[in-house]
Specification:
With 332 residues, the protein is of the alpha/beta class. It folds into two domains: 62-285, 3-Layer(aba) Sandwich (Rossmann fold); 300-332. Helices cover 30% and strands 20% of the residues. A six-stranded mixed sheet has the order 6-7-8-3-9-10, with helices on both faces. Strands 2-1-4-5 form a four-stranded antiparallel sheet, covered by helices on one side. Strand 4 (121-126) and strand 5 (129-130) form a beta hairpin.
Length: 332
């Protein structure tokens, strides 16, 4: 079982091959294929490996904004509409479970958010970026640095070691230069897989492979994690441990969207969105997101107030007879 990682989380990130090993020239793990241009300089400002991350003091309020999204596919029987004018807003720090029957549009919705697929019409904004307007190369670079993708079937590259799989997104995106190995080991430690770092994925159980996939998704420290049926191939005990890790990530300021068939897990998320025939039919919030902290008084102000109170008590004490105190008595 995973340990409680709520105190210390390395950084997260995306980058996972879609549908097995990528085809030659195709984008891999959210980053462009070898030889493809990388637009923009390497990400700066990410925490070094091993550094404790707290939830950011102020997060962008709106992380996901889908506006009247329609997605249709041509079929031999005619046009099939997977999403029918879906609008969805997700704020920073929310843990959103997307539930629904097979064919309801859950995976299509997650593909819209990650940029794996494009809407037929409508707008998809993630962290302020209009994803639907980006080119394929731009989407690959954007995804590699902004979205961590976790797949039901793990999608680890079988010829690379566990450690190399976690380092891969950093290699493609040019992030964490000079510290990728250390960082990858740190992330594997967070999911209790550091001892398996040099093994191939085929030597691991399904639960162990999913832990590695989560560590890989955290590699570039993205603000958003999107998981498509991440517990679908796991036993209940391992699924619960993976869910607990997701809860820990939201406590550290990450935003998580999890597609699932498991109604029990969905009820434990901070919000459950139910799809039916390509439309949102219910949207239920269970509790306040961890990262909505813009109304919380900064710790520096709290400390200053406490110091002022202590000084006031000290001044009053100086005017009182010996042995008396203005401060309230404290009892063990």
């Amino acid at each position: 079982m995973l340990s409680d990682t709520s105190v210390r989380l390395g950084a997260p990130a995306p980058g996972a091959p879609v549908n097995g090993a990528p085809a030659p020239g195709a984008p891999v793990n959210g980053a462009p294929a070898p030889g493809a241009p990388v637009n923009g300089a390497p990400m700066n400002g990410a925490a070094p490996a091993g550094v404790q991350l707290a939830a950011p003091a102020f997060l962008p309020k709106r992380v996901i904004d889908l506006r009247t999204v329609i997605k249709s596919y041509p079929t031999a029987a005619g046009e099939y509409i997977a999403l029918r004018g879906v609008s969805l807003e997700v704020d920073a720090g929310e843990f959103v479970a997307v539930v629904g029957k097979s064919g309801s549009g859950k995976s299509t919705l997650s593909n819209m958010i990650t940029g794996i697929d494009r809407p037929t019409s409508g707008e998809v904004l993630v962290a302020g970026t209009p994803v639907h307007t980006l080119s394929e190369d731009e989407i690959a670079v954007w995804r590699g640095r902004n979205v961590g993708v976790v797949f039901q079937f793990f999608q680890l590259l079988p010829t690379l070691s566990v450690l190399e799989n976690v380092m891969l997104p950093m290699d493609f995106c040019g992030t964490f230069r000079g510290e990728r190995r250390e960082r990858a080991l740190h992330l594997l430690g967070q999911v209790e897989m550091a001892q398996q770092a040099h093994k191939l994925p085929t030597a691991l159980s399904g639960g162990q492979q999913q832990r590695v996939a989560i560590a890989r998704a955290l590699a570039n420290d993205p603000p958003l994690i999107v998981a498509d049926e991440p517990t679908g191939n796991l036993d209940s005990h391992t699924a619960d441990a993976v869910f607990h890790l997701f809860e820990t990530l939201t406590s550290a300021g990450k935003t998580i969207v999890m597609v699932t068939h498991d109604d029990d897990l969905a009820r434990r998320a901070s919000r459950a969105v139910t799809l039916l025939d390509g439309q949102i039919v219910t949207d239920q919030r269970h509790y306040t997101p961890h990262a909505v902290v813009d109304e919380v008084e900064p710790i520096e102000e709290v400390a200053a107030d406490l110091e002022d109170d202590w000084l006031d008590d000290a001044e009053l004490d100086s005017d009182l007879p010996a042995g008396a105190s203005a401060a309230p008595a404290r009892h063990a």
